[in-house]
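[stage:ingest] chain + small molecule (hydroxy diiron-OXO moiety)
[stage:ingest] validated
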Amino acid sequence: MLNFFKGIKIDSKQDNTKTLICWMCLMINKYTIMLLSERMLAALNNQVKLEAESSQVYLGIASWLETQPGLEGYTEFFYRQSEEERHHMLKLIHYINDRDGHAIITALEMPKNTFGQVIEVFQDFLDNELLVSKSINDLVELSLNEKDYLTFKFLQWYLDEQLEEEKMAKTMLEKLQLVGSDRGGIYQLDKDIVGLRTKVSESKEGE
Ligand code: OFO
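[stage:predict] done
[stage:export] tokens:
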């Protein structure tokens, strides 16, 4: 911050001292607004890890689905979901660093790599999204407690995202519960899921 004050000269004839003090106060105030509190920084960094782990969870699912015959739709869905989670993580990293924090990249838990059946995959998907939603809600609450309105605003995008993802996971889980072990139904949903993803992507682009 001291760099801001380098090269500033006080013209004693014009007595600019008061003006300079006001300007310094403004800059200090600006910095107070821009800096993340320690608690906010730690919580945002925790979210970076959670988004990275979500990406890994969906990558593990996608890789397993790819080894199963005839499940190309579900496979593509989870590869894309994994990429989306990486995008969520990167968005957080840039935000933290832009606010003069430091986004920390940590080691991740090894995700589950094998599943009994397709419905298990969607139960895991929903469980993970509920976990992420809870974490985002906690972050929103913390941002208000810390009076960090920039972070509060930043998190609104994540709230919208979670609403969509929870809805997608619930819809697919309910459909799979309806078809049960009927293989024809499972293969039909494999085709439908690509359409579901496209519909969600289009509604996002239209925003
Ligand atoms: Fe990162 O959006 Fe869901 O998990």
